[in-house]
Amino acid sequence: MKVTVLGSGTSTGVPRLGGENGGADWGLCDPDEPRNRRTRVSILLESDAGARILVDTSTDLRAQLLANDIHRIDAVFWTHDHADHCHGIDDLRPLRYGRAGPIPGYADSETVRRLRQRFGYVFAGQHGYPTLISLENLDTLRLCEGFRIGHTQMPHGGMDSTGFLFDAAGKSVGYATDFNQITRGMIDLFYGCDLLIVDCLRREPHPTHAHLAMSLELAEVCRVGTAVLTHLDKSMDYATLSASVPANVQVAYDGLVLTP
């Protein structure tokens, strides 16, 4: 199994718009370090058989797919419906071309409802255009494209985000982005996984996201093989952060390829 980090940044990306004198706002990030240039979060999983699962359709999806030479996916999962995680959905249109049917899509029931409300044409077709994605509730889903699927709901401020566990070929990858509390369900799902890609917005506590201490706590409590910090804001300089984390923790960057 292979995992590509398509995007590793927070909702505004890094650098952020609106810096001093109208320039780019890099915060504490070194602008000369390419790994500090972050688009909005998304990952792609690929099995040994070549099946590809996309998690989230980030605002920067088209650029991410082109940058990583990805021109086909077999299924898409959503963690929740916040703009940075779903507003790139229309970029899937060209990936529907040549398919016999829509791309399978999955999310929890509330995210399904919200996505259907916001992007009705994607899931029902419109004006002669075909349905792009067949969206289903993931509650009863156990297998997808050769991956075993586990999931749990995670507190994300006033709503929930879905955490996923993908299992294939004896390896497991957890994806836990956009949470602000550690729950029993999260520990049970991610315990002992080979690779955990985990929310880590900044060092200071945040009302809707994990901060560094919480991210490291989840990785330690779950005894994961490797933790990879993602959803990073402009205060999280790649080199500085990399030098301060334990040996089994990596800092994500756009285009990072991981093999659990």
UniProtKB/TrEMBL annotation:
What GO molecular functions are on record for this protein? hydrolase activity
Metallo-beta-lactamase domain sequence ranges:
39-231
N-terminal signal peptide = none
Key words of the record: Hydrolase
- Gene3D superfamilies in the cross-refs: Ribonuclease Z/Hydroxyacylglutathione hydrolase-like (3.60.15.10)
- Identify the stretch(es) annotated as Disordered: 1-31
Family matches, as PANTHER family? HYDROLASE C777.06C-RELATED, HYDROLASE C777.06C-RELATED-RELATED
Protein name listed in UniProt: MBL fold metallo-hydrolase
